[in-house]
Amino acid sequence: AVPEIRAALPADLVLLPEVEAASDTLLFGRPEIRADLAGSLPGPAEPRELAAALKVLVAGAPPVAFVRLEEVGGCAHLEQLSVHPDAARAGLGRALLGAAIEWSRQAGYSALTLCTFARVPFNAPFYRTCGFAAVQPSGALARVRQHEAELGLDRIGERVAMRLELAAPPAG
Question: Of 2, 22, 39, 149, which is most buried with the most CB atoms under 10 A?
Fold first, then answer.
């Protein structure tokens, strides 16, 4: 069973960098990722950075997975989705993404954007199965991609910006 997804509490935030760092190890050894550069991924977000996020949702107590949302160019933006390897392949990523989509819709955003590795199966191909489409980034989203390039992510593996249009919730 998928653990309950809930808003992160202050006590959760100090545990999330470890979840993110562990999650990043899932990229090591992937054929889509340059092996010589996999270890040069940017470090995990600090608790104070997470505390300043637009929204952080977690799964489990203590958390074994989380999603961090920000606002980019007037859209909700999925900044990070991390699942600890010990909890991987149990539907947590999909459940957290669903919760992030629902939160974004309820918060009144017209779209949810993200930037991810284009060819890693649990990155862009996964997001496509959830309705996201690759987009040519412009404006604030293009600046996010530029920042990623400056961090060296484009050298590690091909990156793509994606967008999901959010229909308004049914009136009721």
Answer: 22
